[in-house]
Amino acid sequence: MRMSAGYLFITLFMVMFSVLLLGALGEEKKAVSFEKTLEDTDIKKPDIDQNSYIYDETGAVVSELSKGLNRRYLDIEKIPRTVKQAFLSTEDRHFFEHEGVDMSAVARALAVNAQAGSIEEGGSTITQQTVRNLFLTHEQSYNRKLTEVLYSYQLEQEYSKEKILEFYINSIYFQNGIYGFETAAHYYFGQSSSGLTLAETAFLAAVPANPSHYDPLTKKENTKKRQEWILTKMQETGAVSASRAAEAKKAPVELHVSETKNLYPDYTFYVEKELKELIRKKEGFARRMKKAGKEEKKDIEEELQNRVREVLSSGVHIETSLNPDLQKEVTAAVNRQLRGKNGNGAAVVLDHRTSRIKALSGGKNYEPYTFNRAFQAYRQPGSAMKPLLVYGPYMDQTGADKQNFVDAGRYCLHDYCPANAGGSYPGQVTLKTALARSYNTAAMRLFETTGIQQSFSYLESFDFSRVNADDHHYAAALGGLSRGVSLLELTKAYTTFSNKGEYRPGRAIEKVTDGDGKVLYEWGETSRSVWSEETNQELRHMLRSVITEGTGRRADPGSGEWRGKTGTTNSYHDLWFVGFNSRYTAGVWIGKDNPDTLGAKLRSTHLDLWKDITEGLSDE
């Protein structure tokens, strides 16, 4: 009874398929047109997740980003012939002959399934498998199978056979989170598919038939057996000779598992953050945010996050200014100076000639996607803020130069009485000396003369994201900001001193392109004038004195015309030094993730770290 019902179903199913396919192939019948049946079938261009790549300044890949499925996409022209033949020989020998469905294979599968009383064999073509991977589920049902047939026919009308084969080879699953043959080649053998032997190619081609059963890492014996079967099928179809197949069967297969590349996680994590800001600006999210209410802002932010994920899943190429040698030196210096110490830190190096970020350390022994202190830690900058908020605005407004005098004696403003480090109150000193020795009382007098509002207006040219009206108080003159600044923000601001008083935002990203090389995003920003060139030149002289005779003497690398400024907050919670020569601007920060007093052993580490980094930086 069971067998009779099974064969009856086969007969009815075959009749239905025949009617549909006759219409699909355009034969003149009085059946309902297959095209008509497909009018409402939504076959879109396959949206296949692809890995994106980050490049350093030399054009080398330093990071591979998998924000969707882990997939290295390869165009059909770049897929090796043996890879294509391995799948054509085993999955669909008549691929270039049928129009999406191989009726002989379907009949065979239906017979087997009827005998078993369940779905044991699919009879699917490569086109059908592609449809299943891209548009449908892997549910085992006749309803899904019929839908698969409809989609397969439409896919064959939309795309060439070569393109469908390309979709297939890039969409099949290879276990362990790996999609596509090229990705599998890199993961399991550490190289491109073009470099695989015939034995290795057939070995990988075995996996998609049943990824868990043929897992190369845990079921290698199973994989090897199917590899030999695949080589036999390739011989039968003439894809390889008998001798080559025999030789490949005997050849040993050694795996060389290679994880996704991320050579400089400190830097590349920031690149992803900068990409988000680039998309925010270029696609209008920033403009919409300014006009939105609180709840709407949440929705816009979520939309932006989705957009960034979409971009990174589309296989973009992100070209950056990363200097790999300098990055290695900076991260090594941070690890070296902070080894065994109860604290952490960060470092940033920019080339202010080009306004490009060359190296960035997020902390000692930094792990990917963890808290990055270079751009995520917002702390009070201490006296490192004085050149930007106090001396620059005062000198620009009054025309004063480095030899003008200011009183560094005791001083109080409305019960706020700052002290000078070391308890020294020398009275009248030059602006040069006041900055070099970092006298707080002198800075307060200058700040009051310029005025809080006027002084803060100068900061609007910079990219201090968390400085706001709540900071408009006298303690700000000494770096007492409510929400603080990041090391990257502060270091970028200091590039103004090397650009004649103009600020050009430092960036990591040069441009973002698609797989065809079309530019999708790039910054293209102009500079912003902060203060006069004359004021800037005076400030440069004064910042040189910080290193030659002031609080930054220990940081002097001993060669080159370096200039800079120290910063220390109350109770030694934060230590800063930012400085520059004729080409580079470098900044360092030392502190604890949960703000606390740094021990005596750490209180000069910021100067030692900065010196360690800058000793290797020349003007060339």
TrEMBL record:
* Coiled-coil blocks: 275-310
Classify the source by domain of life.
Bacteria
InterPro entries annotated for this entry? Answer: Beta-lactam/transpept-like, Glyco_trans_51, Glycosyltr_51/Transpeptidase, Lysozyme-like_dom_sf, PBP_transglycosylase, PCN-bd_Tpept
GO molecular function list: penicillin binding; peptidoglycan glycosyltransferase activity; serine-type D-Ala-D-Ala carboxypeptidase activity
Q: Which residue intervals define the domain Glycosyl transferase family in the entry? A: 59-235
Q: What is its main location?
A: membrane
* Reaction catalysed by this enzyme: Preferential cleavage: (Ac)2-L-Lys-D-Ala-|-D-Ala. Also transpeptidation of peptidyl-alanyl moieties that are N-acyl substituents of D-alanine; [GlcNAc-(1->4)-Mur2Ac(oyl-L-Ala-gamma-D-Glu-L-Lys-D-Ala-D-Ala)](n)-di-trans,octa-cis-undecaprenyl diphosphate + beta-D-GlcNAc-(1->4)-Mur2Ac(oyl-L-Ala-gamma-D-Glu-L-Lys-D-Ala-D-Ala)-di-trans,octa-cis-undecaprenyl diphosphate = [GlcNAc-(1->4)-Mur2Ac(oyl-L-Ala-gamma-D-Glu-L-Lys-D-Ala-D-Ala)](n+1)-di-trans,octa-cis-undecaprenyl diphosphate + di-trans,octa-cis-undecaprenyl diphosphate + H(+)
> In this protein, which residues make up the domain named Penicillin-binding protein transpeptidase?
345-583
Q: Where can this protein be found?
A: Cell membrane
Q: Note the SUPFAM superfamilies from the entry.
A: beta-lactamase/transpeptidase-like (SSF56601), Lysozyme-like (SSF53955)
Q: Enumerate the Pfam families for this protein.
A: Transgly (PF00912), Transpeptidase (PF00905)
Q: Name one GO biological process term.
A: peptidoglycan biosynthetic process
This protein's UniProt keywords: Carboxypeptidase, Cell membrane, Cell shape, Cell wall biogenesis/degradation, Coiled coil, Glycosyltransferase, Hydrolase, Membrane, Multifunctional enzyme, Peptidoglycan synthesis, Protease, Transferase
Gene Ontology cellular component?
outer membrane-bounded periplasmic space; plasma membrane
Q: Which family does it belong to?
A: In the C-terminal section; belongs to the transpeptidase family.
Q: What is this protein called?
A: Penicillin-binding protein 1A
**Species per Swiss-Prot/TrEMBL record:** Salibacterium qingdaonense
